[in-house]
Amino acid sequence: MHRLGIARSASNSVRPSKEKRFTYVLNDGDDTKHCAGVNCLAVLKSSKPDRSSYLFTGSRDGTLKRWELNEEDATCSATFESHVNDAVLVGENTLVSCSSDTTVKTWDCLSSGICTRTFRQHTDYVTCLAAAEKNCNIVASGGLGAEVFIWDIEAAFTPLSKSGEAADEDHPIDTNGSSNGISSQTNLPQGYVPISAKGRKESVHALAMNDTGNLLVSGGTEKAVRVWDSRTGSKMMKLRGHTDNIRALLLDSTGRFCLSGSSDSMIRLWDLRQQRCVHSYAVHTDSVWALASTPNFSHVYSGGRDLSLYLTDLQTRESILLCTNEYPIQQLAMHDDGIWVATTDSSVHRWAAEGQNPKKLFQSGGSFLAGNLSFSRARASFVGSTLVPLYREPTFSINGIPGIVQYEILNNKRHVLTKDNAGFVKLWEITKGVVTEDYGQVSFEKKKEELFEMVSIPTWFSVDSRLGNLSVHLDTPQCFSAEVYSADLNIPEKAEDDKVNLAQETLKGLFAHWLSKKKHKSGSQDGAHENESTVHPPFEFSTTSPPSIITEGSHNGLWRKKITEMDGTEDEQDLPWWVLYCILHNRCPPRQQTIFSFYLQPYEGLTIQTMRQGKLNAPSYLRIRSVSNYAADKLVTEKQLDSCGDLMPSVEILCNNQVLKSDMTVATVRAYIWKRHEDLVLHYRIMPET
């Protein structure tokens, strides 16, 4: 017999501040490939003929990848776990990246993925970077917080002296690139502080520097090109002409000429000495998102939202359509006689570009004269005709894999149905991080209907597919609200009526490798604790496609790492306290338990007299079987049993005149049968068994 009890809070203490979120990202595909759009490209050319060059790609999937380029293939030789909006190379072995987590990071780009420094000066998403080619210490960063910072990477790594000189605010303006350094304020007590470009009031989407790093240009939602003296952060000029957001910028090596691409579909060439626009090029039919130039700044390659890659002669205004893509173009990078093209797709392609001799491409015909006012005038000579791209296929491709674009959390709160951009529908078990069913290219809606279960479990996690993968988010204390019986999970080592907290067991599964390494390093041989930390089969995560953990670190922004790469030496301050509490103490943090209130009354028309029961409280996972046992034990008298004669009575539980199955929970009954906001009302009746 089971008695219904009143559930009480395990603790009266409530943490007032918002707790850190814990996220894990599931992966079912080839981990060496991107599964979401590629935001940025950087090429590291080999200085020796017998060595490979490298391509770095940063994706919306939250990873930076290093590709070793050979004549016939490209091999992913390292993956850097970091959400990336832009990346630039500085010197021979430093990669600088920026992210929506408001950080700028430096990496040893020839390592296996070592982050050497994290800068947290920005207050909002960091969207773009620029580097000085001949001054390998200087990098600029800009973002949505209307902030632009200029960093001296070497100074940022140098230990601070007790005294130092502040930056000189009175450097003369020089657009010929004669300066070769930047000074910054290093005498502040809180450490290295970058130079701030003063005066911006709107978001920044594009930056560019000249070779020596003394000149910086920025553009964004202000629709104007701002020019800065990067040695002091002072504004030199503002150039107006675009009618929409500026999305791409280039500076020539001397810093005299600037190219800008805008959402108004125009490309403009600016002479910074004359402080005016000297040419405008109407080439595209939609937003221009990416620009790349030949070494002598004579020609520009451009791409954007119209899916097209164009080459334009800046002097003669002659343009030619090189190729069309299936997706909008986000970034371009020159590499010898080719050009790498990144799009909103997960694949990266290299196209022939004749970067050393671009005039050669115009000899095949098909070019047109770019207008300077609007697209309609740009192709006046092509009215009624369609431009034919010069190339149909890229010379080389680094293929990605499809990303998730649609998802649905199923009622059992353990499975998530997903659909990727190739139309494949899969069923994920998020407590194990694996795909349990691959249904192929079927109807997502029909499959969702087929998998419907009449069961109600508290929502203990949330998901999204912004990274192209399935990201599972846990927030305390909500994540510890879902408890089920071990029988529902087919755990033979536990009694059928044992309760299992889904979040607690999932966290144990995610950190099993870390906990094992930690115990080994500390020399712990606690056998009892070993039994407590046993991970049951429904919570054993894959080691072939391990998920990545993302959480807010103690001081380095978002912290991301694969569960199999955690070696037990990680700083515990990088993990939320409630996650550590759950793993190390093998129990849930103090929380207020969710209870259900309901009435249990005799069924109308019952011929024998019964007892009435007032309002009862129970946990949401309580089964109807327990309610039936309670009724038989407490509400049915000996006299009533005698009236049944030799027949053994059973107690049926009903709701809205519907007989309930014994394995249903009170939460399920309330959600799918009661369907009201008032307290649940259940009825019981005695049915003799033959």
With strands numbered from the N-terminus, the spatial order across the biggest sheet is 35-36-1-39-40
Query: Kindly state the mean pLDDT as a whole number?
Result: 84
- Structural class, from helix and strand content? mainly beta
- The amount of helix comes to 10-25%
Q: How widely separated are the two ends?
A: 22 Å
Largest sheet: 5 strands, antiparallel
The radius of gyration is: 32 Å
Helix count equals 10
- Anisotropy-based shape: elongated
Low-confidence stretches: 1-16, 160-190, 376-383, 527-531
Q: How large is the share of residues in beta strands?
A: 35-45%
Secondary structure tally: strands: 45
Description:
It is built from ten helices and 45 strands. A five-stranded antiparallel sheet has the order 35-36-1-39-40, with no helix packed on it. A five-stranded antiparallel sheet has the order 22-23-24-25-29, with no helix packed on it. The protein starts with 21 loop residues before the first strand and ends with a strand. The model is unreliable at 1-16, 160-190, 376-383 and 527-531 (pLDDT under 50).
